[in-house]
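Re: weekly structure request thread

Next one in the queue (251 aa):
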Amino acid sequence: MKPTIALTALLTVASLGTPAVSRGQQAPAGNTLDKGAMDALNKMGAYLRTLKSFQVQSTTSTDDVLDDGQKVSSDGTVDLLVQRPNRMRVEIESDAQHRMFFYDGKVFSIFAMRMNYYATVPAPGTLSDLVEELDKKYDIEVPLVDLFYWDGDKQSVSTIKSAVDVGPGQVLGTTCEHYAFRQDGLDWQIWVQAGDFPLPRKLVLTTTDNEARPTHTSVMTWNLAPSFNDAAFTFDPPGDAHKINLTNIKP
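Done, posted below.
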């Protein structure tokens, strides 16, 4: 499962709303957009766009659906280091793969560590352009990066059918506010840190147009003052690694 959410639509919204739903209450029927839930995403997105460098470490759990409809789960980790506007390093590890992405503002490299294969391609000059190019040209998704581009300018808020403020919650000892959203084919929840640093701390995605309703969960730990140098974003292939071509799915 490759979960996607139309969160870019959420951060510049009209003044829509009804009273928040407290924990233990039933959400209102129909398509209801709670103003507090929408405003919280607006505030979170605005704050995330102010961050110049950061590190996010995430523990993940993902359901895959077998041909007979049975769900199987796999756990993993993601370690993302970013220096805006044009530096990134990502390490992704799970039972199925161990990969690293490197981006230094000029070149993007992907390294499959277990297979000892790598590929390198010229890259655009900004991280936002790189993320879009990797998705469209190579069908490569950079984990968590969508978090930092929720600007409300790319899609209509009409994709969101329901928004609910569930109430307070805890994620790894951090006090958060828990929100739930619904759109066609997807239910998703987000826990946003309370206070002056509205960081997303947990994300749960549930695919609703599949009878098995597979779920992807990500629990995030943040470092807003990471230590690094330029070498952190440059790939130096091992001497025995094999270089391959990255296939453009839209030549």
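The longest helix spans residues 35-48. The chain is about 10% helix and 40% strand.
Next request, please.
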